[in-house]
Write a structure and sequence with these properties.
The structure is a single chain. This protein has about 450 residues and is an alpha+beta fold. About 30% of the residues lie in helices and about 25% in strands. The chain has helices spanning about 10-25, 40-45, 65-70, 90-95, 105-115, 115-125, 140-150, 175-190, 250-265, 295-305, 310-315, 395-410, 420-425, 430, and strands at about 5, 25-35, 45-50, 75-80, 100, 155-160, 170, 195-200, 205-215, 220-235, 235-240, 270-280, 285-290, 330-340, 340, 350, 350-355, 355-360, 365-370, 375, 385-390, 410. The strands form six sheets. The chain has an eight-stranded antiparallel β-sheet with strand order 13-12-9-10-11-14-21-19, sandwiched between helices. α4 (about 90-95) packs antiparallel against α5 and α12 packs antiparallel against α13.
């Protein structure tokens, strides 16, 4: 087992990893930017190293500084968390060359799944259902229009290196193709340095459902049920739950087996997810694979009653997994992401000092956060400041408990998305499980 793990991340996920390491008897090293000096992950780690100024490229994306921090503290492993360098094949490879275990996927696995066109080809070989579309990257608009006619409008063009909705355009008719093509390529080139574009049939009224996977170093893969992530705004998830109110037991087994086949195709090592778009007829199609721990992993943890970060560390240390799949029974979990944004002003980011904080409690209530009264939220990073997770025996009980917990969650000094989340919990369509990824497009905040 590892003696010391450096956490190459910040905020709640860094604190989350530190907690598991302490329970496993493993020493921890926090890295931080100058603006994060007072963050809780710095305070609770055994050691802490400043790796640069506030901008991410100079700190949390600064590979030489992170490797240097690992070497001077004699860390024998690095946990990247999510975001930042968690799916960076170059970082995984550099860790390997320096004799430091990267707690995550291998460089080869990250490369095979990181490029969406390559990922689709791999999943096709594994027999995982794919959305009809181009076989790979499109050469030009002429080829794109030809494929669009074959699969039928509406279609969606996507950046092969994209994420978070960037480099993505829905095209309803051929006359709009050229403008959408130019816009998507320009955005993708600016955001990712890659303007490669592929095309898919646009799935109307879709659900976003992902399968949680674990794979060890010996070829064993298991799935730990699904999460429904359909409640999104601008492709950013707001609420996640396990199980999905839309998935039947037969569909769960079928999706799980498809996801396992896809992960086995690349001999996947670690904890990760395969994400599917599901149409209104419950047909599911591969969307992407995330070769890292997910923001919403606590939802699965609460349903299966097991620590997924611990599982990551054990897998990285060479411990085999049981290979047993999990099907939820009599447990339902839900997570609300709490962002420092003003939902009444077009979700304007609200960095600043938290003057007062009260976190909810009670049976089946969990709060993953790095904030505290007196903490100043920096403007340099993602606006998520907390995750509120509740667990109950039924979805109805879960929603009631989430509503109550959100009302108890008091954050003063900055605006948050808590008012929006409360209204979501009281929405009749949400309560009935009647929603798609377009749900927030028509949701009215009062």
């Amino acid at each position: 087992m590892f003696k010391k793990i450096l956490i190459a991340n910040r905020g709640e996920i860094a604190l989350r990893i530190i907690r598991t390491c302490k329970e496993m008897g493993i020493k921890t090293v926090a890295v931080y930017s100058t603006v994060d000096k007072e963050s809780l992950h710095v305070r609770f780690a055994d050691e802490a190293v400043c790796i640069g100024p506030a901008p991410s490229p100079l700190s949390y994306l600064n590979i030489p500084n992170i490797i240097a921090a690992a070497e001077i503290t004699n860390a024998d492993a690095i946990h990247p968390g999510y975001g930042f360098l968690s799916e960076n094949a170059k970082f995984s490879e550099i860790c390997r060359k320096h004799g430091i275990k990267f707690i995550g996927a291998t460089p080869e696995q990250i490369n095979s799944m990181g490029d969406k066109a390559n990922a689709k080809a791999t999943m096709k070989d594994a027999g995982v259902p794919l959305i009809p579309g181009s076989d790979g990257l499109l050469e030009d608009t002429k080829e794109g229009k030809r494929v669009a006619v074959e699969v039928g409008y509406p279609v969606i063009i996507k950046a092969t290196a994209g994420g978070g909705g960037r480099g993505m355009r829905i095209i309803w008719k051929e006359e709009d193709f050229d403008a959408a093509w130019d816009s998507a390529r320009q955005e993708s080139k600016a955001a990712f340095g890659n303007d490669g574009i592929y095309l898919e049939k646009y799935i109307e009224e879709p659900r976003h459902i992902e399968i949680q996977l674990a794979g060890d170093q010996y070829g064993t893969v298991c799935h730990l049920s699904e999460r429904d992530c359909s409640i999104q705004r601008r492709h950013q998830k707001l609420v996640e739950e396990c199980p999905s109110p839309f998935v039947t037991p037969e569909m769960r087994e079928k999706m799980g087996n498809a996801a396992k086949a896809g992960a086995a195709m690349i001999a996947y090592e670690g904890v990760g997810t395969i994400e599917f778009l599901v149409d209104k007829h419950r047909n599911f199609y591969f969307m992407e694979m995330n070769t890292r721990i997910q923001v919403e992993h606590p939802v699965t943890e609460e349903v299966i009653n097991y620590d997924l970060v611990k599982e990551q560390i054990l897998i990285a240390a060479g411990v085999p997994i049981s290979g047993k799949d999990y099907f939820p029974k009599d447990r339902w979990a839900m997570e609300c992401r709490i962002n420092a944004e003003d939902p009444y002003n077009n979700f304007r980011p609200c960095p600043g000092k938290i003057t007062s904080l009260h976190k909810p409690g009670g049976h089946g209530v969990r709060v993953d956060t790095h904030i505290y009264a007196g903490y100043t939220i920096p403007s340099n990073y993602d606006s998520m400041i907390a995750k509120l997770i509740v667990i109950a025996q039924t979805r109805e009980e879960c929603i009631v408990k989430m509503d109550r917990s959100l009302q108890e969650f008091i954050v003063e000094g900055v605006e948050t998305t808590i008012p929006l989340q409360i209204q979501l919990m009281r929405n009749d369509d949400f309560k009935a499980g009647n929603f798609t990824t377009a749900f927030m497009d028509t949701f009215k905040l009062v």
